[in-house]
Automatic annotation (TrEMBL):
This is Gamma-glutamyltransferase family protein. Signal peptide: none annotated. InterPro entries: GGT-like_enzyme (IPR052896), GGT_lsub (IPR043138), GGT_ssub_C (IPR043137), Ntn_hydrolases_N (IPR029055). The lineage of its organism: Bacteria, Bacillati, Bacillota, Bacilli, Bacillales.
């Protein structure tokens, strides 16, 4: 493939969008919210590196896009620094006092979505502090200051965030009657409604918490004043998480895992994340040659590869301490060929988890030294558990919703166990050099989005913006396929004839929201794309 004449051709732009591909020399930050992207870029201009920029943007996103992430969520990162890839898993385990037997004794037959039951130990603040300690240039307090300022002084609500904030408020108003949830409403619905698009919103308690995290390098969150507040509130309201759960938590540095896809090395983090699903699917898909993207056969082969990968993922991915599968064997060409032989002319019916939507933010950052960060953090489902620690702005995640109460399930709930995790940052290298930080947020859509944007760039030579703008499909379980309204009608009809149960979907959330930064190997110029399905922007320098 001639990179300079295909992938980076700004005139190759086959899908309509309000955005064009962005170029920059010194640095770039791509996020789902303009204020967060600008905070990251300002950090670069102050002498920060890509890691500092990513932390600044991530902390800002907990303030300016609380519909998708928060201080009480988890985070993962892939960092290219000084010519080497580093992986960080900052996902927290179930509390020590939480078990499947206890929940079943309390009348639960499955994991609930809201309340204390799905709350796991938050990892996001620990991720920021650990990344800063290992790689940052600037003082941690300085890096978190933009987020503190937005929380304290306020900011105008952006369109997509405002839409989902209102949607969550209306759902919670009808569903969450327990007094436990009063603190969510007092924080996020101060006027007995969600803030309107363009309306100023601020959270002084959120600012105080971020200031404490910044001053103590997150120690206060895990072993200090914030931990004590979380412990006391949990103890008083029937929660399971305690101070010792927080005190014992530290993020884990891990080695990324990868496969070669048609000359490019694709990297994901190992389980408990679902990056393995994306790699399994791409390893199957690479055995096919594609000449056109917009054909029923291309869609069919992508979908079937993904379904087979999800079937394996459902059966295998869990806490790494409980996994027995050999990742090397699973990612081998021989295994991919074996799975590829199952793909025929009609839709398969694999046994796999029914994918769902969730609330997540993804960002990518790059600096003038050539360093890159692929970073993702999440509350899981929109506002997570809807449990807010009073006076702190800490909205706790509901990541434990992915646990099972079935003792035969690979993600059977146990104390101190990490569950199957949906949020996954992606990275691409080419001939041992950094090529791209990329990600597509959105629950179980994430490996599906990874497969599609990688195929768009490598198989069909699209620039990052075109790769994100292209219409997507979303497998939602069994033979059910949602296709975006931009897909040509004849493709949906022919997929239906192949046995797929096809629905045309207009809700953009169904298809995830992505960011991509690429380094041109010939010019070292940064090239960025941001998803039109979100409020995102590329802040470039």
């Amino acid at each position: 493939m001639n990179v300079s004449n295909s992938l980076f051709n700004p005139l190759y732009y086959p899908y309509p969008s309000q955005r064009t591909v962005t170029y920059a020399k010194n640095g770039m930050v791509a996020t789902s919210q303009p204020l967060a992207a600008q905070a990251g870029l300002d950090t670069l201009k102050k002498g920060g590196n890509a890691v500092d920029a990513a932390i600044a943007a991530a902390a800002c996103l907990t303030v300016v896009e609380p519909t998708s992430n928060g201080i009480g969520g988890d985070a993962f990162a892939i960092v290219w620094m000084d010519g080497k890839l580093h992986g960080l898993n900052s996902s927290g385990p179930a509390p020590k006092r939480l078990s499947a037997d206890l929940l079943k004794a309390n009348g639960f037959d499955q994991m609930p979505r809201h309340g204390w039951e799905p709350v796991t130990v938050p990892g996001a603040p620990a991720a920021w502090a650990e990344l800063s300690k290992k790689f940052g240039n600037l003082p941690f307090e300085e890096v978190l200051q933009p987020a503190i300022t937005y929380a304290e002084e306020g900011f105008p609500i952006s369109p997509i965030t405002g839409y989902f904030w209102d949607k969550s408020f209306k759902e919670f108003q009808g569903q969450l009657k327990n007094p436990l949830f009063e603190h969510w409403f007092s924080l996020f619905a101060t006027k007995n409604s969600a803030p309107k698009v363009g309306e100023m919103w601020k959270s002084p308690s959120h600012a105080d918490t971020l200031r404490s995290i910044a001053r103590t390098h997150a120690e206060s969150f895990y072993r200090g004043e914030l931990a004590a507040k979380l412990d006391a509130f949990s103890n008083a309201t029937g929660g399971y998480i305690r101070a010792d759960d927080l005190a014992d938590y530290y993020p884990e540095w891990v080695e990324p895992i990868g496969i070669n896809y048609k000359g490019y090395d694709i990297w994901e983090l190992p389980p408990n994340g679902q990056g393995l699903v994306a790699l399994l699917a791409l390893n199957i898909l690479k055995g096919f040659d594609f000449t056109e993207r917009e054909t029923p056969e291309t869609y069919h082969k992508q979908i079937e590869s993904l379904k087979l990968a999800f079937a394996d993922g459902k059966a295998l991915i869990s806490d790494p301490s409980e996994m027995t599968a050999d990742l090397g064997e699973l990612l081998s060409d021989a295994y991919a060929q074996k799975r590829r032989r199952l793909i025929g002319s009609t839709a398969l019916w694999p046994e796999a988890e029914k994918p769902v939507e969730s609330g997540t933010v993804y960002l990518a950052a790059a600096d003038q030294e050539g360093n890159m960060v692929s970073f993702i953090q999440s509350n899981y489902n929109d506002f997570g558990s809807a449990v807010v620690v009073p006076g702190t702005g800490i909205n706790l995640q509901n990541r434990g919703h992915n646990f099972s109460l079935d003792p035969n399930h690979v993600n059977y709930l146990k104390p101190e166990k990490r569950t199957y995790h949906t949020i996954i940052p992606g990275f691409i290298t080419k001939e041992g050099k950094a090529f791209s930080a990329f990600g597509v947020m959105g629950g179980f859509m994430q490996p599906q989005g990874h497969l599609q944007v990688i195929s768009n760039m490598i198989d069909f030579h699209m620039n990052p913006q075109a790769a994100l703008d292209a219409p997507r499909w979303h497998w939602s379980g069994d033979k059910s396929i949602h296709i975006e309204h931009g897909v040509a009608p004849h493709i949906g009809k022919e997929l239906d004839a192949k046995g797929h149960d096809v629905t045309v979907e207009i809700n953009p959330k169904c298809f995830g929201r992505g960011q991509i930064i690429i380094k041109d190997p010939e010019t070292s110029v940064w090239i960025g794309g941001t998803d039109h399905r979100t409020d995102g922007t590329i802040a470039a320098w």
